[in-house]
Specification:
The protein is α/β, with parallel strands linked by helices. The protein folds into three domains: about 5-80; about 90-250; about 275-465, Vaccinia Virus protein VP39 (Rossmann fold, 3-Layer(aba) Sandwich), CATH 3.40.50.150. The protein is built from 19 helices and 16 strands. The strands form four sheets. Strands 12-11-10-13-14-16-15 form a seven-stranded mixed sheet, sandwiched between helices. Strands 1-2-3-5-4 form a five-stranded antiparallel sheet, with no helix packed on it. It has a two-stranded antiparallel ribbon with strand order 6-9. The relative contact order is 0.09. This is Nodulation protein NoeA.
Length: about 475
C-alpha cells in the first residue's frame, strides 16, 4: 500500500485531514478533534444522517496496516469516494439553495440531539446527481449551553447572500464567488440592495444589521471587542428558532428572472424538428450502448434532454455544463423531476474553473478534476469558434482532450443560428468549414461514424481518440 497523499483542500481543519491511498478516501482525526468526534459518534447521530442519505457513509478503520500509516491520528475513518467534486461557484441557484437547506436541516436535527455544526462552509456539501450530501464528518461537536451560532456569518456569505444576489438583483453568484472563494460579504451585498429591499425583516436581520456590526467591529478598540465576546449567549430555543426561520425563508427564495436569457428557451425554441431530434437521440443511444461509459460530460447541456437520453441508454452518470443560468435551472428541474443521475453545473468553456485557492491547488480546476469516459458536445463548438474567436482546431483539440470517446456536433455557417451570430459582425472565419472540421478531428481521433441531421448541414461526429 502506497503512502497516503493529503488532499490539498483539507489542510484548514485542525480536527483532521483527508487522504487518498490507492483510490480509497480516508479521514484522520487528530488529538484536537478526537474528543468531539468520539462524543458525537457515540450518539449515533452521524449514522442516522447516513441512513437518510444526508451524510457520506463512513466507518472507523480497524485494519492495523492502515492505522500504522497515520501514527498521529486518534481515529482513521474511511468513507465512500465521490465520483465528482464540484464547487459552490459552479452551482446554479437551485443547487446552492438545496445545499443551504440541507445544511440548515442537519443543523436543526443536530441541535435537537445537543450537537452543533462547527462551521457553515458550502464546501462541506457535494452532490450525487441533483441531491446534496454532507461530506465533513468532523464538523460536529457537542452543544454548549447558551452558545451562539458561530457559523452564521459564514452561512450568510456562502449560502444566503449568493442566493439573494440572484433573487433580489437577478445577478448570478458564480463569477463573484469564484473570485473571492469565500462567498459574498454582508457589507458588499448591503451596498447593492435598494432601500425598500433592506426594509425586509429577514434582509435587515441577516444582511443589513450584521454588515453594520461588522463595520463597527473593525473600528472598535480591543477592550470593547473583548466585552462583546463576554456577553451572554442565546437560549437553545432561540438558536433553534433562528435556524428554522432561516430555513423557511430560504425555501421561499426564487430567481428574480426565470424566463429571459440567451439560451434558456433553446430546448423549446430551436432549429430542429421532431424527426431531427429523433435522429440525434438515436445516434447518442447507439454511441452510449457501444462505449458503455460510467461518467459522461455533456458540454453545453442546456435543459439536459440529451443527458437524459444518454442515461437511459446506459451511461451511469452525467455532469452537464452550460453558461446560461436559466438553462441550468431547467436541467436541474429535469434531473429532480425524473430522478436522473445528472448534475448540471455552470461553465464558461472559454474561461473554465482553474486550479485556485491556497498554493493554487486548494480547488482543482475543470480539466484536472475528473476523467470522463465520454463527452457529448452538441450544438456547442460554434459558440467557441464563432462566438469567442477561438480557432476551430483548438476547440476540437480541447474537446477531444477531455475524454477518449465522444460526439461533437458541427454547425455549418449556413445554419440559421450561426447566421444570426454573424449578422451583427464581420465574418472573419474563412477556415470555419466542414472540411476543416473533419481534417482537424481526423488529426487527433478516428472518426467512427457520422450522421447529418439537418438540411442546413448540422452533422454529428462520433470520435475515438488516437
Amino acid at each position: 500500500m502506497t503512502n497516503p497523499d493529503i488532499l490539498d483542500g483539507s489542510f484548514r481543519d485542525p480536527a483532521g485531514q483527508v487522504h487518498e491511498i490507492d483510490g480509497r478516501i480516508f479521514r484522520t482525526v487528530t488529538p484536537y478533534g478526537a474528543p468531539a468526534f468520539a462524543k458525537v459518534h457515540a450518539t449515533n447521530f452521524l449514522n442516522d444522517l447516513v441512513k437518510t442519505g444526508d451524510l457520506v457513509p463512513y466507518e472507523i478503520v480497524q485494519d492495523p496496516k492502515i492505522i500504522e500509516l497515520f501514527p498521529q491520528a486518534e481515529y482513521v475513518l474511511e468513507h465512500k469516494r465521490l465520483n465528482y467534486i464540484s464547487y459552490p461557484y459552479e452551482w446554479s441557484f437551485n443547487l446552492l439553495k438545496e445545499a443551504a437547506l440541507l445544511h440548515l436541516s442537519i443543523a436543526i436535527q443536530a441541535l435537537d440531539k445537543d450537537i452543533v455544526l462547527t462551521d457553515a462552509s458550502a464546501y462541506n456539501i457535494q452532490f450525487i446527481g441533483p441531491k446534496p450530501i454532507f461530506i465533513d464528518h468532523l464538523s460536529f461537536k457537542p452543544y454548549t449551553d447558551r452558545e451562539y451560532w458561530v457559523g452564521h456569518r459564514q452561512f450568510c456569505e456562502q449560502f444566503l447572500n449568493p442566493l439573494l444576489l440572484r433573487a433580489k438583483l437577478d445577478v448570478p453568484h458564480n463569477s463573484w464567488f469564484r473570485g473571492t472563494q469565500e462567498g459574498i460579504t454582508n457589507e458588499d451585498l448591503s451596498k447593492l440592495l435598494g432601500f425598500h429591499q433592506k426594509l425586509s425583516l429577514n434582509v435587515l436581520s441577516h444582511v443589513v444589521l450584521p454588515a453594520r456590526f461588522q463595520t463597527r467591529a473593525r473600528n472598535t478598540q480591543r477592550t470593547d471587542t473583548k466585552k462583546i465576546s463576554e456577553r451572554k449567549g442565546i437560549a437553545k430555543t432561540t438558536y433553534n428558532s433562528l435556524l428554522v426561520q432561516l430555513k423557511k425563508w430560504i425555501s421561499t427564495l426564487r430567481p428574480r428572472n426565470t424566463h429571459n436569457s440567451t439560451w434558456g428557451n433553446y430546448a423549446e425554441d430551436n432549429t430542429y424538428n421532431d424527426e431531427e431530434n429523433r435522429l440525434k437521440a438515436d445516434f447518442i443511444t447507439e454511441f452510449i450502448q457501444s462505449t458503455n461509459p460510467d461518467l459522461i460530460y455533456d458540454i453545453g447541456c442546456n435543459s439536459g434532454a440529451f443527458s437524459e437520453v444518454a442515461l437511459k441508454a446506459g451511461a451511469r452518470q452525467s455532469i452537464g455544463f452550460d453558461f446560461d443560468k436559466i438553462a441550468i435551472d431547467k436541467a436541474f428541474k429535469r434531473a429532480t423531476d425524473k430522478s436522473l443521475n445528472l448534475l448540471p453545473l455552470y461553465l464558461d468553456a472559454a474561461n473554465p474553473s482553474p486550479n485556485q485557492g491556497w498554493k493554487q491547488s486548494e480547488r482543482v480546476g475543470f480539466v484536472e478534476r475528473a476523467k470522463p469516459d465520454a463527452i457529448l458536445a452538441l450544438a456547442f463548438e460554434h459558440h467557441l469558434a464563432i462566438g469567442k474567436n477561438i480557432p476551430l482546431q483548438q476547440v476540437i483539440q480541447w474537446l477531444v482532450s477531455l475524454a477518449p470517446n465522444g460526439i461533437i456536433e458541427f454547425v455549418d455557417k449556413s445554419d440559421p443560428t450561426v447566421q444570426t451570430m454573424l449578422s451583427m459582425r464581420e465574418d472573419i472565419f474563412p477556415n470555419y468549414t466542414p472540411s476543416a472540421f473533419e481534417s482537424a478531428l481526423s488529426d487527433c481521433t478516428t472518426i467512427v461514424n457520422t450522421r447529418e441531421i439537418t438540411k442546413d448541414g448540422r452533422t454529428l461526429y462520433w470520435y475515438k481518440r488516437i
